[in-house]
Design brief:
By secondary structure, the chain is α+β, with helices and mostly antiparallel strands. Helices cover 32% and strands 29% of the residues.
């Protein structure tokens, strides 16, 4: 799902557009016991509760596509009877009115979701009349041929509020505050089916993880039946390792800077594209080839890419390069440079030692204090 499609579904979680028909929930304690369950028509909830739930639903569809919002396809063996996709299809078709299916759903989550404290499983069913989009790219709300029928699951930590003092309006006293168990924003969640190309895609789902660097692997594999993706941090580390091992002795400051500059340039060119900019294996190989990689080492690259990332997998460009800063680090010094001015840095050999030179063209501050450079001293003397 691209960002516009995600935003279109998020807009349905408001009082004016509410597409939610039914809500179910299960509160689970730290010992994996079901403490209480909820089954209601969503619009029967008090208005204040509805607003709180809307916040949770929107959060489950918040973040960056490719980082903590991930499109996942079901393997073919999960779409046959008894597979995970087949189970979710039955759950969706029941519109959350089948108690046996609900209990099985909760049991699967309790078995495969690992969280050492209390949490609240929220499951909703929704139906969205997809408006036609005219040639002027505006929605025609009075014209709709398709309905997007979906379920959204949010798994939220439940934590005890902090201790403290409060003002009691009834007793007119400052006193010890009652501690409550609060439902927090979701840790993980998923939307099924995916809403790709503004329509139902039963072969995919959208997965949410609050932590973009660490996923619930067992939950993804066993509960959803999908392949475990490489997190953003894993993509960055794997990409860096591949560059170092492929360039080897040619992995110079200039080579790495050129790769960074090229990626930054490519991302700038693609920033208006609706889908996140990704690199496949051939594109990464070409990037290394034009920056000095030995042909023999490029043969090794093929094996490494397949091992670290996956033969047919792509890398999200924003996961492997930072367009906001260019950083050079030694054991004792860290330098951050405007990525548009990496040309101000160069390496040079002086008296048998390698130095990193920084061209000074503007004023220089040290601990917030303006210092005089050689050029400014000469100017003052003149």
């Amino acid at each position: 799902m691209i960002k516009k499609e995600i935003l279109e579904i998020r807009k349905q979680f408001t009082p004016a557009n509410c597409a939610v028909t039914r809500i179910c929930g299960c509160y689970v304690d730290a010992e994996k016991n079901k403490k209480t369950e909820l089954k209601k028509t969503f619009l029967s909830l008090p208005e204040e509760e509805m607003f709180k739930y809307f916040d949770i639903f929107r959060k489950t569809l918040s973040g960056t596509p490719g980082k903590n919002l991930l499109d996942m396809e079901f393997p073919l063996d999960q779409e046959i009877p008894g597979g995970t996709q087949d189970f979710l299809m039955k759950l969706k078709a029941s519109q959350l009115n089948d108690e046996l299916l609900l209990e099985e759903f909760y049991d699967k989550i309790i078995e495969h979701y690992h969280y050492g404290e209390n949490y609240y499983i929220i499951l909703i069913h929704g139906a969205y009349d997809i408006p036609k989009r005219g040639s002027d790219n505006l929605d025609q709300f009075d014209a709709s041929d398709d309905v997007y029928d979906f379920i959204l699951c949010s798994i939220c930590p439940v934590k005890l509020s902090k201790a403290g003092l409060c003002y009691n309006t009834q007793t007119n006293n400052i006193e010890d505050r009652m501690r409550d168990w609060l439902v927090e924003m979701p840790d993980v969640g998923f939307l099924f089916p995916a809403f790709n190309e503004r329509n139902t895609d039963i072969h995919s789902l959208l997965y949410y993880s609050k932590n973009a660097d660490e996923f619930q692997n067992e939950f993804i594999e066993q509960m959803l039946g999908c392949r475990i993706p490489l997190p953003a941090k894993g993509q960055k580390n794997s990409f860096n390792t591949i560059i170092e091992d492929t360039l080897q002795e040619d992995c110079s400051f200039e080579a790495v800077r050129n790769i960074h500059d090229k990626l930054t340039e490519m991302m700038e060119e693609k920033k208006e594209e609706p889908e996140p900019f990704t690199l496949d294996k051939a594109e990464v190989k070409q990037l290394l080839a034009v920056n000095g990689a030995n042909p023999e080492h490029l043969e090794q690259f093929e094996r490494q890419y397949d091992e670290y990332i996956g033969e047919k997998e792509e890398i999200l460009a924003s996961n492997v390069t930072n367009t906001r800063k260019f950083e050079v680090k030694t054991p004792n010094i860290t330098i951050q440079v405007n990525p548009e001015r990496t040309d101000l840095l160069e390496t040079r050999m002086i008296d048998g030692k390698t130095y990193l030179l920084i061209e000074i063209t503007d004023s220089v501050e040290v601990n917030g204090i303006n210092v005089r450079t050689v050029e400014r001293k000469k100017g003052n003397e003149n």
